[in-house]
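User: My instructor asked us to take a sequence, write out its structure as tokens, and then describe one feature of it. I'm not sure where to start. Here is the sequence I was given:
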Amino acid sequence: MSNDSTVRGYLTPVAGNPKYDEELEREISRWIRGVSGLQTNLVFPRWTDPQPQIPKNGVTWCGFGITTVPQPLSQSDVQVSQEQSEQWTWEQVTVICCFYGPLGSSTASTFRAGIFVEQNNAELNLSGLSLVDAGTIYNLPELINNQWVRRYDLTVTLSRKNTRTYNVKTLISASAQFFGD
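Assistant: Let's start with the prediction itself. The structure tokens for your sequence are:
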């Protein structure tokens, strides 16, 4: 089965697939840990299977989830060679960060302040993401194992440019005759 524009049929990307799912979660986890100062085993994605064991009450930790990846803001198709075309899209990624434990509010506040530090955003940029906005920190205690646990939620919006490469070939020559003036 051909995967280029020389034959009829659907085309799939041949390179440049953006990070989604676990790969994207790993990048966001590194960012949260780096800016908040939380240890590796205290920051993990929500809604995974299997669900990791949450820390005991009295430990400050963060569970985060990618809540939306809206339709791309814009799209461009760019012919980069005679053999390939790139599709560029810019999309936003919305992440909810839930900070739990006795220092949850402090950690959420430290994280929110730290994401606006230029050096921290420059590190985030290395993964292809950039900070757009951070919202209000909400105090939303949660009942876990019949114990109330402090929880502070913060929604952060990131943006990124995605590039997908397709084997769309340029028209080099055609057998055609032109008639008229």
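For the description part of your assignment, you could build on this observation: The longest strand covers residues 85-100. Try explaining in your own words what that tells you about the chain.
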